[in-house]
Design goal:
By secondary structure, the chain is of the alpha/beta class. Among the domains are: 7-91 and 224-299, Glycosidases (TIM Barrel, Alpha-Beta Barrel); 100-217, Maltooligosyl trehalose synthase, domain 2 (2-Layer Sandwich), CATH 3.30.1590; 335-467, no CATH class; 745-844, Immunoglobulin-like (Sandwich), CATH 2.60.40.1180. Helices cover 44% and strands 14% of the residues. It is built from 31 helices and 28 strands. The chain has an 8-stranded parallel β-sheet with strand order 16-15-14-5-2-1-20-17. The chain has a 6-stranded antiparallel β-sheet with strand order 21-22-23-28-25-26. A hairpin with a 2-residue loop joins strand 12 (212-213) and strand 13 (216-221). Helix 12 (317-328) packs parallel to helix 21 (538-551) and helix 14 (351-368) crosses helix 15 (376-389). The chain is globular. Pfam families: Alpha-amylase (PF00128).
Amino acid sequence: MKIPSSTYRIQFRDGMTFDRAATLVPYLKRLGISHLYASPIFTATSGSTHGYDVTDANEFDPVLGGREGFDRMSQALQQHGLGLILDIVPNHMASSLENPWWRDVVEHGEDSRYARYFDIDWSRRLTLPFLGDTFEKVLEAGDLSIKADPDTGKPALAYYDTCYPLKPSTYDGREQAVLSMTAKAEIAALHDQQPWRLMSWRDAPRELSYRRFFEITGLVGLRVEDPEVFADAHRLVLDLVREGRVDGLRIDHVDGLADPKAYLEQLREAAGPDTYIVVEKILGEGEQLPDDWPISGTTGYEFIGALSNALVDGSKTDALTHAYEAVSGRQTDPMEDLRDAKLSMANNNFEGEVAALQKLALALHEVEDDSSAIDADTMHNALRELLVAFPVYRTYGTADGMPEADKTRLGAIVSSVESGPHAPDKEALAFIRRILLGDVGSDQADKASLFRTRFQQLTGPLMAKSLEDTLFFRHHRLLALNEVGSEAAPPAASLTHFHEEMRTRLKHQPHALSGTSTHDTKRGEDARARLYTLSEAPETWAEAVARWRDMNASQVVTLKDGPAPEPAMEWMLYQALAGAWPTDLRPEDTAGLKALEERFLAYVEKALREAKQRTSWNEVNEPYETAVKDYAARLLDPENGNFLADFVGTLAPFIRAGLVNGISQTLIKLVAPGVPDIYQGSERLDLSLVDPDNRRAPDFEMLTGAGDDGLQSVDEETWRSGRLKQAVIARVLNLRQQRPELFASGSYIALQPRGKRADHLVSFARQEGDASLLLVAPRLVLGAFRQGEMSVSDKWAGTELPLPEDLQGRRYREIFSGRVFEPSTSLSVGWTFADHSFALLVSE
């Protein structure tokens, strides 16, 4: 297998086509990229901004340039020696009439050849939850009619511009009579004859008849566990692999599949042993990928969490917590708040999925243990408590049983629930555990297997929507830690823990992707690196927030349900704005402030709705949202000059220290175990907010026009513009291609600096045979140096890096300055940092 030395993620759509990507290939080659990593490129719904709503997995999307455009891009990649990794979506497709498989199912119901392609409960009519109100109210309002489908000419039930195809047997031979129907009773009767029924989108959480992706009704689960479905859904992509056009695959949301291991084994067999495969999988604290999955690792969310241990000041965690609690007016209990979020999700957003599991469990209990009675409420409570208590995304039990590691995990979770303050009925809980372990009669094995599969497919979305998309928009202490793959209550950051995580990464998934920005992260990597610095000065930050709240107090509106924004939300607004503030934006730059305002207000709206406290996507509280957005807009009003001057002045040292963090973060990613992934545009500064902000097309003209000059004169401008970061990336990525074995399989050796500034360095070595490298990078510089200075070589005097015996007596060249070092037993950090405050030394 050819392991990538690095990847570059490109988001197709929004102006990015195959031909546009082809023009970037020479630049990616110069940057040192080995593989272009493409977002989904197969046909998706009209106007799709991301491509995960696939409508045809066997067609290149025409909006990207179709087959011909793909061939031109492929040829450009091959001419420059770059490979291609595709992001594929086996878990779901768009439940859109643009999807020919889905349309056929809607038209023919269970008689469709694709009826078993989708995860549909055919014990009832297919639900189509796309009405603005109930069917009866929509019909009464005259919004439903019978007319000829403009694409097929066949009779259809029309709701505004959408034409739902009627089952042919309900109109065969009487097309004209059906098309002339206008009476509401006739339309209702015809609707009742269909294999589907239209309903309000609000009823989906309770009544949906198909498995969806998380809580998105527009995405329907695909049954790739069926060999026929697998073959049809992967026909084109596997052809591309066999043709040598595609070298690797990224599997979207692998935990949504019925049996991830079986899927990956089937994919590996079909794609062959040389295809690089990684999965989108969020690992909990201490969790590892199953060893028997035939893949190279994850897409790297856990790498972000590991990095925070190197760059956050864990010694001041309590001080920051106290400062936040003083503003918010309440003590934080992340785990209890996570429980509340999970309960809300289980009771509302995933009500139908929980109810279906409860019904199945009761049916199994009636057969398996009719000597005792468990009523519906008791079973529901036990099921809900177990779901809520799950600390990881899922277990991986199958019809053949549950892996030993998952048996142990399940046992521990059940025990914690039994002994916890919310313990449900023991008998009900024990019976659910029996089902999950397959401890039922052989005649009930299929039902137990279905229960297990559905349970395992639910714990992941429940965790994701409760933690990433709820709690992380409620807890604002340090936004940089509210990231995909992070924990609700992570332990205090520790450099020791960072080194442990890197050793673990080398052992379990040395060839996994190492990402710092993705299309799904909550903020860009440089915004996160900047916000890490708040952990170094919690008192300074708290004092600043107090001043700013006073300055803008007149903008707070008193509503019936409380102040808007409330104090905790004010803390969040100032912190989010601090992370996104462009390094060169001045208070007098009216156009720049307006551009930031547009992005910031979109973020604020999403953050408020995701928090689901005083407003939400389903129940919009317009007065509250308007008040908070008006407050946020005032922060960027040029007339609010006193605040803006104070904000920019206060932020200056945090910006400088954040830039240092950004380079250290980048260097760690480039040389630590794993394959560094560069998200489009993040080779310069990435100060983006949550999607869709982080999916904006970068300025490729500016990026591709840059050379390696960022290292020739390391001044403040090169730091602030991101030119230094881009140059560092290019230099190291090209080195990775020259020394592939060192980076792919080199050992990881944590180094321990000593001296005055020892706590302000992160350092480690990689070694493979006679080849070795030493990374020395600064950390926590806000607290160590005045104003978070970026070039402070003289301040490192007296700090040394002792070297293990295997690394002594070698000749090293520092790759950015070209200077040669021949250390005996230790390396002088001050001398090493003479040209710039970071170093990467490689043995010659």
